[in-house]
Amino acid sequence: MATTTTDIKPVLNRLRRAQGQLNAVINAVESGGKCRDVVIQLAAVSSALDKAGFQIISTAMQKCLTDPEDDSDPMTVEELQKLFMTLA
Fold first, then answer.
1. Which of 68, 73, 72, 70 is nearest to 83 (CA)?
2. How confident is residue 56, by pLDDT bands cut at 50, 70 and 90?
3. b/e for 67-84, b at 16 or more Cβ within 10 A?
4. pLDDT tens by residue, 64-88
5. Residues 41-66, mean pLDDT to the nearest whole number
6. What is the three-class DSSP state of 67?
7. Which of 37, 45, 77, 83 could form a Cys-Cys staple with 21, CB 3.0–4.6 A?
C-alpha cells in the first residue's frame, strides 16, 4: 500500500483505536465481563476495522483515478470493486 503520510495517518489512527478496543474486549472476556459490554466493544472494533478498510480502498480508488500511470500497486477498477465488496 503505497500512500502519502497524509493518507496513511488517519488509517493508522483508526487501526490503533481498534487495537485498543480489541484489547478491552479481550480483558473483558478474561475477567468475566458482562455480555452486553463485551458485545458493544466488539461492535466498536468491527466498525473501526471496517472504516479503516473503506478508507484504504477509497484512497486506492482516488489514486487510481488521479494517477492511472502509477504502477506501484496496479489494480483494475474491477479489482478495487471486489475489494470494496469484501468489506460490505
1. 73
2. confident
3. eeeeeeeeeeeeebeeee
4. 667 667 677 677 778 877 877 887 7
5. 84
6. coil
7. 45
Cell of 28: 473483558
Please, are residues 48 and 18 in contact by the beta-carbon 8 Å criterion?
A: yes
pLDDT of residue 54: 86
- In this prediction, residue 33 carries a pLDDT of 92
- Other beta carbons within 10 angstroms of residue 18's beta carbon come to 19
Q: Is the pLDDT score of 41 beyond 60?
A: yes
d(CA 1, CA 64): 12
Q: Check the CA dihedral 47-49-52-58 and report its sign.
A: negative
> Which cell numbers in the block locate residue 6?
497524509
Give the integer Cα–Cα distance in Å for 21 and 24: 5
**Other beta carbons within 10 Å of 54:** 15
